[in-house]
Write a structure and sequence with these properties.
This protein is α/β, with parallel strands linked by helices. The protein is about 25% helix and about 25% strand. The strands form four sheets. Strands 3, 13, 14, 15, 16, 19, 20, 21 and 22 form a nine-stranded mixed β-sheet that branches. It has an eight-stranded parallel beta barrel with strand order 4-5-6-7-8-10-11-12, surrounded by six helices. Strand 10, helix 8 and strand 11 form a beta-alpha-beta unit. Helix 8 runs parallel beside helix 9. The longest helix is centred in the middle third of the chain and has 19 residues.
């Protein structure tokens, strides 16, 4: 079972947070400004080890980080040092992986009979022209989500080995926008098309050696287990050329009180049973991969933002902060819930405070710029300690799909990122300047 402790000791019961991973929130804001993303390095290591820790026969051979969740170079370097491989969905993510120290090529087959693990896998539903150039230049292994990619790859990398991402015909997710299976999803090769796709791969001179399925984010164990049976059926259709299967990602993270982590022990045991049946059928070893994104980084991340206005709108009280959906887009995109705590600002009383129901919004010229909203855009409230201008609001579990989805909307500079490790904070991305916003533009 995984460690289900709340990162950084958990949010205090009084709703006030004074430190992140042992470093003062007020000091972080004073040194680096707000809004500010802060990551707890030890929390990331702990989540990596949940999946990489040996469990005898029941173990993942490869943990592959879906870096689209959090692609800062310092984070990529950290997970690489924990033995985690990486997934890339763009030219930029390939470049990031290389810059973080990942090799482009797999090593030789080991003495255990397993095929080598590819350090970087390019996973996408298309090749744009730059990504195809980058894949060919470095010999990156490709996980094809559309059959048309096969001929395009064969022209540039004749005889390459490929993985197929298969849409099993069903999906799941905490929002329809995170559902990556079924007819409503653009992702993957439709499961009924596999015989034709295998003929196309053979005609193109490519060898299908990998199979990948991912049905969505935030799935529970029952839905994750359903993937295993479908993948096994498709694997048997593909045949003995397969030497790697990937369970995809989607491991849930508890954002709300009462939610729990997935039963990792039960999940890996189920997948190992699938792997063993395929090994018996094919007569050779099969590498078993898992591809978590949010699981490795979500709980490590905090968005520190300053309260800049407190006001009543009729009977509803609003806290307005200096972060907006340009800084954290999950609430406006999915109605996503994030825990929130308050840190007293300079000169503000640090003692326990009365509680109040408030809506929390940002500075953007958009009515949807609300952090406390439900799916569909309805404004909700949160029970928080009473706040005043100058206090710091900490939006928690913000380490996945946080900074990576940030934008320059309203010409707002991107925030800084800080990594806290061993009680020390280190700036790992400088705050964007106003001049950076129009660098490269001309009049």
């Amino acid at each position: 079972m995984t460690d289900t402790s709340t990162p950084s000791g958990g949010a205090p019961h009084d709703g006030l947070r004074h430190a992140i991973a042992g470093v003062s929130v007020a000091d972080l804001a004073a040194r680096h400004g707000t809004p500010l993303y802060v990551y707890d390095a030890e929390c990331i290591r702990r989540r990596c080890r949940d999946l990489t820790r040996p469990r005898g026969d029941d173990a993942w051979d490869t943990v592959r980080f879906a870096q689209k969740a959090c692609s800062n170079l310092a984070v990529l370097d950290l997970v690489r040092r924990e033995g985690v491989m990486v997934d890339a969905v763009s030219t930029g993510e390939i470049r990031r992986a290389l810059a973080a120290g990942y090799a482009p090529h797999a090593g030789r087959r080991g003495g255990d009979g397993l095929p080598p693990a590819h350090p970087i896998v390019y996973t996408a539903d298309i090749f744009d022209r730059p990504s195809l150039d980058e894949v060919a230049r470095h010999g990156i292994h490709v996980n094809c989500g559309s059959a048309d990619m096969l001929e395009q790859l064969a022209e540039r990398m004749p005889g390459a080995e490929v993985t197929l991402r298969v849409n099993p015909g069903f999906g799941h997710g905490h929002s329809q926008k995170t559902n990556t299976g079924g007819e409503g999803s653009k992702h993957g090769i439709w499961h009924e098309s596999i015989p034709d796709v295998m003929r196309r791969a053979e005609a193109a001179g490519l060898m299908v050696t990998g199979l990948h399925m991912h049905i969505g984010s935030g799935t529970d164990l029952a839905h994750l287990a359903e993937v295993a049976g479908t993948l096994e059926r498709v694997a048997r259709d593909i045949g003995r050329s397969l030497d790697t299967v990937s369970a995809g990602g989607g491991l849930p993270v508890p954002y709300r009180p009462g939610e729990v982590h997935a039963d990792l022990g039960g999940y890996v045991a189920l997948w190992n049973a699938t792997r063993r049946r395929l090994e018996e059928a094919f007569g050779h070893r099969i590498r078993l991969e898992i591809e978590p994104g949010r699981y490795l980084t979500a709980e490590s991340g905090y968005l520190v933002t300053e309260v800049r206005a407190v006001k009543m709108q009729g009977s509803r009280k609003y806290l307005l902060v200096d972060a907006g959906f340009n800084t954290l887009a999950r609430p406006v995109m999915y109605g996503a819930y994030h825990p929130m705590t308050l840190c007293p600002g300079p000169g503000s009383p640090s003692a326990a405070r009365s509680r109040e129901e408030v809506a929390v919004g940002g500075p953007l010229c958009e009515s949807g710029d609300i952090f406390t909203q439900t799916d569909g855009g309805f404004v909700a409230t949160r029970d928080l300690p009473s706040a005043r201008v100058g206090d710091l609001l900490v939006i928690e579990i913000a380490g996945a799909y946080g900074f990576v989805m940030a934008s320059n909307y309203n010409s707002k500079p991107l925030p800084a990122e800080v990594l806290v490790d061993g009680g020390r904070d280190r700036l790992v991305r400088a705050r964007q300047t106003p001049e950076d916003l129009f660098r490269g533009e001309t009049v």
